[in-house]
Amino acid sequence: MKHTQLRRFFKVTVLIPSLIVSSLVFAGGQGETARDNAEGTLNWSKTFDITDKKPGIYNLYAEGQDLAGNKTIAGPINLYVDPKSDLPIARIANPLQGMRVSGDLNIVGTCTDDDAVDRVELQIDGGDWVVAKGKDFWSYYVKSGDIPDGRRKISVRGVDINGLVGPVQTILFDMDRARPGATIIQPQAGSLVSGTINMKGTVQDANGVAKVEYSLNNGESWIPIKGSYDAKKGVFPFSVSIDTKKLPSGPTVVLIRGTDGVGSVGITPTLFVVDNNKPEITILSPLAGEKIDRTFVIMGRVRDDVALTSFSWKMGTQGGDIPLTAGDPYWALPISMSDTKASAVEILFTARDLIGNSSEYKFKFPIDQVKDLPRTTLLAPLSPAQGKPFISAGSLFVAGYARDDDGVSAIEYWLDKDAPKKLETTGAFSVQIDGISPGKHSISVRALDRNGVAGPVSSTLFEDMGPPPVLAIDAVVYNGGTKDERSEGFTPGQELAPDAKASLRLTAKSLGKLEKLVYSFADGAEQTITAKGSGN
Asked: 535 in a domain, yes or no?
């Protein structure tokens, strides 16, 4: 049996040859429920209000009666009452259920109604109802910034021209503009790290976080991080141990990759500086085993993969920090040990970097106690040659030069065991010593450096002959050695007869012993006589 679906009102039109018409509606199987007169006779119609009728099947009968009272019944016609079939039906075509939306959204759909659609209304996340653009085919444009990320709900309903509001259709979709982002709690970006570190952080996304991974090789491979999404806090907390000893020293980038609940992937980089290597200390001068004097300069190089915080030295009770220049690994340390008598010295160098790595370097130097002493070289008087001493005559000219790595401040000189006399100089020196007594002597010289350290003594022997003898003809002696001996003063140019038996008396004055006297007359040959006396 064919059923006809009815909404709130329906109209029956029948053409029969009858003067009296009535219509009857019966609930299916439940007997007569209503009897109403139709409008018209030969052509009649009847409108039924089924607003209060319960959904179900109803039978429609039509009874006609003529003027003679004859009756006839047409029917039954089965009718299905469905009040909802009169409501406007709105449907959403875009977005689809569970769809991921990453930008602006144009919500579109359709709406149908037998009476005609008046408008379509939308509601987003339970907010106010707004009117869409269009009727049978409608749309509503939403900018991405107007809807926060996460699981969102759209509801739509139609309103017909009679004001009837249709059923609400609701779909869920995922607004996903932002990708998952990570927040690193420790270590802080740019931190210095060494050994095994525990990297902690969170990954957050409005659509939840499905998984988190990290990479140490610029994304060539990814390592899963255990954990789960905390829906109450809206984060995926994570903690992972990283052995930095397996990484090269220097800046290292760690990538954190998060995947949200709708498949979007976000990568967050963080950087820290790996420093597992200890500082490197190198001594460049003096060389290993090289002897040093008591005042010297150590030069070297200290390096670190990142940066140094301190560099120090210690030698016995001495020590301190060694200043460094940023970007320059080379350093120099002057050391003075003027009072030491040790044969060697050990110096401990300690370097420490920013992360706390430290290294120590012990260097032992042999000390040459003589090497640091200032030296003198005598140029005059000359050293004895072939066992014969230098000869002076009442005065002595002393000259030479002094050298020292620390610099010369003066020289000291003295004769024999006399008290030293000081002469300031920076190198070359000369001095005239007068009033030297005849005889054998020694002249000694030594240098003093800027620290007051005296060098070895340079000495040489010499013999002073005193000043030249002073000769004089005192008198002319006649008949010398007889009882008639007489003398008279000598006058230069005086004439003496060969037979005058005259002789000259000579006087030679000398501070030293006279050995001989040489004389001659005019162009005659030299004659030698033996000097007598103590020098006068």
From this structure: no
| Ranges of the chain whose pLDDT falls below 70 | 1-35, 50-51, 82-84, 338-340, 385-387, 511-513, 531-536
Contact 111, 160 (CB under 8 A): no
**Phi and psi at residue 59, in whole multiples of 5°?**
-110, 135
pLDDT at 19: 36
Spatial contact of 465 and 392, defined as CB atoms under 8 Å apart: yes
pTM, whole model, 2 decimals? 0.50
State residue 69's pLDDT score: 78
Judging by DSSP bridges, how do beta strands 395-403 and 428-434 pair with one another?
Answer: antiparallel
Distance between CA 280 and CA 331 in Å, rounded?
13
Strand partners of residue 139: 108, 133
Q: How confident is the model at residue 20, as a pLDDT?
A: 38
Do the domain assignments include residue 536?
A: no
Amino acid at 357: N
Residues of 382-421 as b/e, b for ≥16 C-beta within 10 angstroms?
A: eeeeeeebbebebebebebbbebebebbbbbbbbeeeeee
CATH number of the domain encompassing residue 144? 2.60.40.10
Domain count, the chain: 6
> At CA 502, angle to CA 497 and CA 508, rounded to 5?
125
State the pLDDT at residue 368. Answer: 76
Q: How many helices (H) and strands (E) does the chain have?
A: 0, 44
Residues 399 and 342 in one domain: no
